[in-house]
Amino acid sequence: MSDRQNAIWWSRVKSVRPMLAAAFAAHPLPARPTGDWRAKLELLCRTQWAMYRRHPWLAHVVSLTRPLLAPHAIAHTEWTMGAVAGQGLDPTTLIHVAATVANFVRGTAVNLQREAEAEQDTGLTDDEWLHSQSDALAAALRGGSFPILAGISGRDDVELTLDTLFEFGLSRLLDGIAPLCRAPGGAQGMP
Question: What tens digit of pLDDT does each residue of 114-172 get?
Fold first, then answer.
């Protein structure tokens, strides 16, 4: 990294870190959570989802590989690992569960800012924009190359939003972690 690139990077860190720290500080996790590991991880994910909804820019600055070290953000990681501690996970699995959970929420939330910008730029909600694209979608589906999508398109009982995507993904993520959390004797991890 050149001196100029390094200076730009450090300038960004200095300007963003206090905002990131404030966002995480405003969304603390309980010191004594109740429930099993799954309820705790669900609480964590919903807390972070609310944080990203309030601060859509945040998902673009949170990094798992080069984190901006802020005590309240680190506390979220520690809390996550505490939620599954005592479930018989080895250290590698423990840190991977924490990173996967954080990345699921952040990865879904990265779309929030773009969604807000698109609505501001066009003046259309997601539903209004999709409706404005109905002719183009009908033309694409008319040829029969996408029969499954054609069967789903336009149904009133099918909804795909960032919130429904978050809810669906959260359930599947926790279902996937469940087989890993089978500690002998049913240890609960966090008090």
Answer: 988 888 999 988 888 888 888 888 888 888 888 998 888 878 888 889 999 999 999 99
Q: Give the count of beta carbons closer than 10 Å to the beta carbon of residue 92.
A: 8
Q: Tokens 């005592």, residue?
A: 86
Helical H runs in 33-181? Answer: 37-54, 71-84, 91-122, 126-132, 134-142, 147-152, 162-177
Burial class (CB in 10 A: 0-12, 13-18, 19+), 182: exposed
Q: Which is it for the CA torsion 77, 78, 79, 82, positive or negative?
A: positive
Give the CA-trace dihedral at 166, 169, 131, 50, to 10 degrees. 0
63 neighbors 9 (Cβ within 8 angstroms):
no
Separation between Cα atoms, residue 95 and residue 65, nearest integer Å: 13
- Determine contact, residues 174/46, Cβ cutoff 8 Å: no
- In the chain, pLDDT over 90 holds for what percent of residues? 49
CA–CA dist 60, 65 (Å, integer) = 13
pTM: 0.82
One-letter amino acid of 155? R
